[in-house]
Amino acid sequence: MTFTKRSLITLAVLAGIIAIAYYFFVTKGITYIWHWETIPQMLFYYGSKSADDLIPSLHMGVLMMGFVLTLKISIVSTIFGIIIGIIVGIARLSKEPVTRGISLAYVELIRNTPLLVQIFIIYFFVGSMLRLSAFVAGTAALSIFAGAYVGEIVRAGIQSIHKGQMEASRSLGMSYTQAMRHIILPQALKRIIPPLAGQFISLIKDSSLVSVIALADLMFQGQQAVARTYYTFEIYFTVAFLYLIMTFSLSMATQYIERRMAISD
User: 72-214: which CATH topology?
Assistant: First the structure.
């Protein structure tokens, strides 16, 4: 049995436990009229978007539009978080005290202040000066936040490689950049994949905070739908499930990459 099959079985068992708990403790314990029939229309609906659109077709509902935007924010933030993290991680190991000090100050400042405060500062202060959109400001805040944690993960991964690897590379005539690119980082990457996956799974969940700057992500759309319909439980359960789809897919992709790298070894 492969690891993927075990994970799917674990997920099925977890879903069964949640379903049983939902039936006995929620359905039996709360006098509430459920309206699950409204949820499919919030995901997809068949019809016309406007009066000018005479041909009906399949369109995304509010929750699915929020899902897509959350996915975009997470992907862009992950890419820039990796770029920032690699630069910061290497800078943390620099022999230049100024470079090392700046990178350390960045890491400590970002890791020891709340993400919500950082979003407010970037959106209302930096964003107002640079005229940034809510999407750019929210993505920038998440990227900067993730970059600090990725930087520490990269630093730890590089330090886990024996220093003799760098010395051997330099003795063969490689520059520091070449040795880092071709020798050190590829080895460190295999070791830091699990903590990186955990960080980016957290980033997907943390992206829900951008709803406070009126960015129409999944959480914002869910809140707006609850305000319109008052179907609190149905909508928030659906929102949670959509977040689970994103995080579980990333977890499965990470496990696949780990297996492929293990085969290459």
Answer: MetI-like fold (1.10.3720)
